[in-house]
Amino acid sequence: MTPTLFGRLQTRLALYLMIGLPVTLVIAFRASGWSWPPAAEPCWFIATLFALGLVLEPVYFQMQRFRWDQDWPFAFFAFFSVMEFLAVYAAMRLDWLPYLPACLQSRLDPARQVLVCQLPSLTLAEAAAHFALVFVPMLIALLAGLQIFMVRWRYRGGQFGRFPVID
Asked: Is 125 a residue whose pLDDT tops 70?
């Protein structure tokens, strides 16, 4: 059965809570030198990525309805996840996200009279590594974990919870 929109949203939330948040907290503690409080940038970055995914999920669901089998291949999942990552990273670097600054420390360049970033909040390498450490386990969980350990998940439109047995 093809996942319903509600099932897709539930699956995204479950993967975010089970994989995305724990991995992000480890990365945040590592970025802060294993001290309290953890660095906020990785947490805000993954939360923004999750929120963008939730906003775009109805669009993906409508796109899926145009396919002949009305299914969403995992290659599409991977491609659009990377596109979401690039969109959030670009928004951060362009300073469109007030809670996720592009620069933590900047200085004024006297020759050009512009601010030059000395300490970016997240470099592309750090953000890409963070995304990969979250995305790859999520993809494995989606391909294997949910389908092996929650056999009926696929047949319930990707939704979790109790469903009455119909005789």
From this structure: yes
With H, G, I as helix, E, B as strand and everything else as coil, classify residue 119. Answer: strand
Cα 147 from Cα 139, distance rounded (Å): 12
Beta strands in 3-135 (DSSP E): 103-109, 114-120
How far apart, in Å, are the Cα atoms of 96 and each of 3, 24, 84, 108, 164?
33, 22, 15, 21, 46
How many beta carbons lie within 10 A of that of residue 157, not counting itself? 17
pLDDT at position 35: 80
* Strand 103-109 relative to strand 114-120, pairing: antiparallel
What residues contact 53, with CB distance under 8 A and at least 6 apart? Answer: 12, 81, 84
Residue among 62, 42, 38 nearest 50 (CA): 42
Q: Pick 71 or 154 by higher pLDDT.
A: 71
What is the greatest pairwise CA distance in the chain? 79
First-to-last alpha carbon distance for the chain, in angstroms, is 19
Contacts of 38 (CB under 8 A, 6+ apart): 25, 28, 29, 31, 32
Query: Structure pTM?
Result: 0.75
